[in-house]
Amino acid sequence: MTAALVAAALGAGLAGCSSTGGKRAEERAAQAAQGRAAVTTPKWTFAMVTHSGDGDTFWDIVQSGAKQAAVKDNIKFLYAHNEEGKEQAQLVQSYIDQKVDGLIVTLAKPDAMKSVVKRAQKAGIPVITVNSGSGESKKFGALTHVGQDETIAGEAVGEELNKRGRKKALCVLHEQGNVGHEQRCDGAAETFEGKLEKIYVEGTNMPDVESSIEAKLQSDKDIDSVVTLGAPFADTAAKAADGAGSEAEIDTFDLNAKVAAALQDGTLGFAVDQQPYLQGYEAVDLLWLHRYNADVLGGGKPVLTGPQIVTKGDAAELAAYTKRGTR
Amino acid sequence: MSADAQPLKTPGATGNPGGPRRPDHERTVRASLPRRLVSRPELGAVVGAVAVFVFFSVAADAFLQWSSFSTVLYASSTIGIMAVPVALLMIGGEFDLSTGVLVTSSALISSMFSYQMTANVWVGVGVSLLATLAIGFFNGCLLVRTGLPSFIITLATFLILQGCNLGFTKLISDTVSTKSIADMEGFPSAHKVFASHLTIGDVEVQVTVLWWFALIALATWILLRTRAGNWIFAVGGAKEAARAVGVPVNRTKIGLYMGVSFAAWISGQHLLFHYDVVQSGEGVGNELLYIIAAVIGGCLLTGGYGSAVGAAVGAFIFGMTNKGIVYAQWGADWFKFFLGAMLLLATLLNWWVRKRAEASK
Questions:
Q1: SS3 for B277?
Q2: Cα dihedral sign for A58, A63, A66, A68?
Q3: β-bridge partners, A251
């Protein structure tokens, strides 16, 4: 019975093809990027351990950067993640036990990671920190930090808002207790001459994000700009503004295909890109350079990958890159 | 068979499995309206809802606008669509921890099927319905076959689905979110069915609100007017006794899980057609919201007692509180504290009203 239904559905599937969009359209447009190692160094193994949650677009892009660099540098690339600091440290430990040739870690919860990073050094494994932990990286003995300083990124947002003559902004935090998120909003509040308010929303529940922003905009008509801290939330914020009949401009941190498209058609004002692809790519490449040539970049200071303010003018060029998942 | 015969005290221990709600002899005479009212499980929740509504009407300037009302209603409906079948399941004595991610799974299946097959999106929607119902069937079957607690079974399903959501999405689309299907055939009509809004007077009503009301009506009809409704109360109240008098316990439980799946499918399609793309990591934690709504609405955690309307009112209380705090412009850092405190107050009021009602009988 069920089999018959499935068969019927599949049959209908073949009959009910869409002549627009879909995979076929993508395939038509896609060009396969072939990867081959460009160097003849031994096949070293590098591992990356981040504080990402499951299914996070941002970390997906970091990974794709790291993987591409790994192909080029003849590296075997391993990846693991856990949002709990303690679990993340255990993952790092397991890679130390496996005697990898290089480690890339994030220090979103520096205290939990401190001892394990030290242990990596004792084992003679070079460590590069990415994304978060610019303050702790050097202290813990990492080679280099590659990432964006969240406070500086926030400050860039505040300045951009000033430039656009905004008076009252709403900062939408989609993870309560995330230090980086707080730094972004605080940085924006620092340089923004108008008033900035915060709102916490449930990031795993899109309808909640939408209705909360909508409620906020309805209760405060003075808000003329909404800043979201992640690309997937920008589109939702735009829907909320629409629903509340608000004229507020929507701006966001981070890019994805939808953000690029929305920048182009003017739904979004600007996006602050910290170039996650670069964080993954540079980390692998720098580890390789260190192994191959004993190079160190940054001289103890973080190597900044952002903030880059992306507006309507840049969006057309970036749209293609966001679609293939590298911007 | 009228609604007034529900056991109020010691629910779940009625030992009258053929239908705990079958009128007793003393109740064949219709009771007076107030008496019938106090015996309804949702009474306390309604009082709680009124209290929350009055409170925020006073505390928040923006709360009493029509547009705000539609926002609150939307927020309530997205929880309420799931809270209604979850309440039925709880009346039937079982739990489901996989509901939050099941909604996301359902959305992912239709999106990815349509995209990968380059099919009309309605085909994906149909496949998703079958697949989602199959997951509910799986939950129910495993439960009745093994006799293991639903807590364990659905916790396992929760984790499996969470892994599949991420794993399959990554495997198929190479990123953690699906590709946009907004430019595909059938999208506009599907969008109309699952994610449009109607303008009634000055109020914009999201179509999810209509789905929600339809589900409440359907669930209430099933519970109070059909034999299946009796079975649900019976299996939740006294399973063995119910089985002894010939209630198809297994069929009822499997049916309840499939009911939950059906609602998850509706919610999932809403997610998909409202936002075009689906993030594979979403939905975790929402299962708790549905259970919370059902419990605020008067469902007992032990089964055998509760109502669909109650669960809907519970969802409405949650929606009002959740958004009311934003309208009241209270400190954002304390949001969760206020949410917890308000829910506790609403539930205490609910409990107190019910106690009084029982005492006055």
A1: coil
A2: negative
A3: A227
State which H helix or E strand residue A171 sits in.
strand A168-173
Q: What is the pLDDT of residues A50-93, one digit of tens each?
A: 988 877 788 889 999 999 999 999 999 999 988 888 889 989 99
E strand or H helix that includes residue A253: strand A249-253
Rama region for A173: left / alpha / beta (φ>0; ψ in -120 to 50; rest):
beta
For B105, the token pair is 């799974």
A293-316 b/e (C-beta count within 10 Å ≥ 16 → b)? eeeebbeeebbbbbbbbbeeebbe
Is omega for the bond preceding A42 within 30 degrees of 0, making it cis? no
- Is B282 within 8 Å of A239 when comparing Cβ atoms? no
Rg (chain A; Cα; Å) = 22
- Please, what's the b/e burial string for B33-65 (b: 16 or more CB within 10 A of its CB; e: otherwise)? eeeeebbbbbbbbbbbbebbbebbeeebebbee
Residue % of chain B over a pLDDT of 90: 57
H/E element holding A274? none
pLDDT reported for residue A33: 42
Q: Say if CB A18 and CB B132 are below 8 A apart.
A: no
Q: Scanning the structure block, which residue is given the tokens 């919370």?
A: B292
A208 and chain B in contact, CB less than 8 A: yes
Mean pLDDT (chain A, rounded)? 87
Q: Which residues of A touch B60 (CB under 8 A)?
A: 219
Task: Provide, as residue numbers in chain A, all residues whose Cβ is less than 8 Å from the Cβ of B120.
Answer: 16-18
Closest chain A C-alpha to B38 CA, distance in angstroms = 33
Let me know: does A256 contact A21? Beta carbons within 8 Å. Answer: no
User: Band of the pLDDT at A39, cuts 50, 70, 90?
Assistant: confident
The answer to whether A286 touches B136, Cβ cutoff 8 Å, is: no
Q: Are A117 and A127 in contact (CB under 8 A)?
A: yes
Q: Which two tokens stand for residue A215?
A: 């409620």
pLDDT score for A175: 82
- Among residues B48, B95, B45, B22, the alpha carbon closest in space to that of B307 is found at B45
Helix (H) or strand (E) holding B18: none
| Structure token digits, residue A154 | 């926030």
The torsion angles phi and psi of B128, rounded to 5 degrees, stand at: -60, -40
Whether residues A54 and B67 touch (CB distance < 8 A) is answered with: no
Distances in whole angstroms, Cα of residue A30 to Cα of each of A22, A33, A256:
12, 9, 17
Helix, strand, coil fractions of chain A, as percent rounded to 5: 50, 20, 35
What six digits make up the tokens of B186?
């059938």
Asked whether the predicted pLDDT for residue A34 surpasses 50, the reply is no
CA dist A280 and A302 (Å) reads 15
Question: Which contiguous run of DSSP H or E holds residue B56?
Answer: helix B43-59
Distance CA A92, CA A78 (A): 11
Say what the ipTM of the complex is.
0.76
> Cβ distance A83 to A53 under 8 Å?
yes
Residue labelled with tokens 């009241």: B328
Q: List the single best residue of A50, A206, A227, A229 to mutate versus B (max B Cβ within 10 A).
A: A206
